[in-house]
Here is the input.
Amino acid sequence: MAQDNSSRVTEFILLGLSDRGELQLLFFTLFLLAYTMVLLGNLLIIVTVTTDPKLSSPMYFLLCNLSFIDICYTSVTAPRVLVALLSGHKAIAFEGCMAQLFFLHFMGSSEMFLLTVMAFDRYTAICRPLHYTAIMARRACWALVAACWAGGFIHSIVQTVLMLQLPFCGPNTIHSYFCDVPPIIRLACADTTLTEWLMASNSGLISLGCFLVLVASYALIMAKVWARVSQGNWKALSTCASHVMVITLFFMPCIFTYLRPAGTLPTSKYICVIYTILSPMMNPLIYTLRSSEVKESMWRLWKRCRTF
Here is the structure.
């Protein structure tokens, strides 16, 4: 049955994290602090890596790309949330909502692929050190990063096209602070069973597949490091454990959110905070501050800045 254009939804209302007015200032402060930390931390990494020739290894090249993606990924949702909390304006145009959904999945899936590549880089460096230079040559690194972006783009296009095929004639209230597949698909005035399963198999399997590859890679790395513990590799083992912690923090909420049809269980908007804000904020801390090379480079950068 054709949908009447006059009844088509032209905007959505994002309810945000809470309807209680007294919490708006608290959420605004927390989001502003978190977003500022994401921007400053990741920008510092990008500047440090790109200006220090000593950080030219594939690991730091990939880390620099991760920082760039984290900035873009967080910027898809955080500025809009801050404006809404400060002004109270909760409406977002239909086109703007679809654009936010597209870039959210574009950046999010690209980051998943890149984290998987970073785990492969560490596996190669530790488990196959004699072949590391040949496998992770500069051209190969560029190709892997390009593949991450291409994979994220294809995934996001599929999600967005599937969403645009659905009719929306009301209601238009989204019980979240950003536009995403699970809360929006519930508003479609049509049978969405097939679309939900297609989206779950797309987003959910990507999240689960990347996570399993990451866990397998780090398990092999930790087994290799554990065999050399007597040689003083406790720091490497601790670093691997911290990496596993941060990827678990990023992937588990995504798997819970996307690896099921959207209508089966409600998705907590507070869980979404973990992978949209908290995880990008922790990446600079986990991946850099535990590295003596990065800390020394940051110190050299600080001394150079003081001379100007």
Remarks:
- The two ends are 69 Å apart (CA to CA).
- The chain has ten helices and three strands.
